[in-house]
GNAT family N-acetyltransferase (Micromonospora endophytica), 369 residues
Amino acid sequence: MNPATIEGPGVRLRLFRPTDVADITAGCADPLTQRFMDGLPHPYTEADARWWVAEGAPATFAGGGAAYAIADPDTDRLLGTVGLSNLVAPRSQAEIGYWVAPWARGRGVATAATRALAGHAFATGTARLELLTSVDNAASQRVALAAGFRPEGVRRAASPVRGGGRRDLTVWVRLADDPPGATPRLLPDLPEGRLTDGVVVLRALGPADADEMFRLHSDAEVVASRVPPEPPTREAMARYCQEAQGQWLVGKLAPMAILDATSGAVAGNCAVILDQPANQAMIGYSLSPQWRGRGYATRTVRLLAGWGFAHVGLARLWAGTLPENVASQRVLERAGFRYEGLLRGRLPGAVGTRADSTVFGLLPGDLTD
């Protein structure tokens, strides 16, 4: 049986009331809510909110789920909603979901509400909770981590998109016997949001970088070092930038933009690609031709290595280059990487061919200033 209220730090989960209609309407009509919740009516009206309060939420409880208003414990104003759905009784499993109103974002409301409802679900017999997020919804993914959920993979084309098409969803799971607290991050955020040596700046890649990244990776000199040596499509690069933060949060890779510290211009991009079982990572980098010859690539590699060893806790970094890419090999050597060998036919080449790859490795004591 679901209680009328569930208390959490800074939030109260309670049943919906007719006085919530205006706030439900405003919250569900918000563009960000609409963007990631394709199942909501569009446009969302007060009639939709009244139906939810009178029929939708009670029907969710009647079906064995839960539908709570997230309320401010001091003012009782609605801050969002949280609920349980898609119950699989034989597996003691349910799905948890939420949205937060624009006036309550940035206060930890979703995390507190998710923790509170998850705790109640586990206490009343649920063994496994799933939380599904769009692969480009970094804010919701941060909530999942903070609430103790762990990434389990991506369900391809799992959800229809309003207006046509389908979207991938990242699956986050918490079990009843998982340790309390947030899920540790394999790839932490950059300290103060960036890495810099005063000459170059590295910051997380995001959706706004799509045009710059498409221009960079369409340049003929950059394409020659890509694997395979083909330019990306505009759609593929936009998707890469949209999903970059999500890839970082699930602990797969940390994609970054390389900026000139003086002008703020984008000079290139780089990434740390994690091999977590081996506690090592591969690094990669690309610079626009007009920014080459200034030592920016070497500075980038040193910044990546320093962050990887000091903040990620890696035991080893490695990088590969085409055998003919002597300039990139010199970059690695100046940063302290040592040549370790040649892997024959390791990389896909042009028109169905294979290309060899050199391998350079770096241990914490090898890094040069």
Summary: The longest helix spans residues 46-62.
